[in-house]
Amino acid sequence: AFIGADFYLKIADVPHEINGVKITEIRENTFAGVLSLEKIILPQTIVSIGNQAVSNCKNLKEMYVPASVTTISKTAFEGTGNFIMYVEEGSYAETFAKSNNIEYKHYIPKPLKPIPTEDLKAVFGGQYKEFIYDMIYYNNVPMCAITFSNWQGNKTKDVVVPAQFNGADVTVLMTRAIDFGDNIETITLPDTVIAIDDEAFSACSNLKKVYFTENVTFIGKSVFKSYPNVTICAPKDSYAHRYAIENKINFEETPNTN
To answer: What is the pTM of this model?
Structure first.
C-alpha cells in the first residue's frame, strides 16, 4: 500500500530499500485510486508492476520507469490516462508504452544513493491535546494527518486546528478528525492543511462555519452531508469557494492571506 495516499502526496518517490531490504515490485493496487498523485518515480531495483497497481490515478502526469522493470501487468494503468511514461531507451517499459499507446519520453535515472534513516521514519497514533495523528517523513520533511479527536463533553465552541505537531505540518484532516463535537460551532483550519477527507467532521450537530484557506486543494464529497446549514468561509475563487458553489453550500468570503 502507498501510505502517502493518506497524506495526499503529489509525488511518490519510491525508496530502493527499507531497513536494508531491497524493494523489487510494485504490487497489485499499490497506487490505485490515489487522486492526489501527479508523479511516480521508481528506483532501479523494481522489476515488476502488478495488476491495477497504478489504476484510476486521474491526475497522474508523469511516471518514471527504469530499465530494471521487465514485467508490467496489462491492467496496471487501467483507468489512468493522459500521463507521460519516462523510460530508458530500448527498455521493456518503452516497448510496453508503444504497445499500449502510452505517451513516452526517454530519461536517464539518477544513481541510487543510501537512504537516510530519518527519511523513512513514521509515527502512528501520536497525540497532542485532543488530537490523535499519524506522521510520516517525506524527503526528510515530516507531515501530519489528524486521524481522530474526541470532543464529547467538551464545551469548546470554536476549534482552531493546530498548524503543527512536534514540528510537523498538519496537512490533512482524515475521517473523524473532529468527532463528537455537539458544542462546536466553528472550525478554523491553518494554512498548512491541503485536504479534508470524507466525514472529517463527525457528530458536530451545531456546526455553523468552517474557515478554509486558499491552500486547501481537496474536500471530500460527503464532508458536509450532515450539515445542510453550514457556511464555508474562504477566499474568493479558492478551491473551497468553488466547492461551495458546486455543492450548493452557503459561502462567506474571507481575505486572501497570500
So the answer is: 0.83
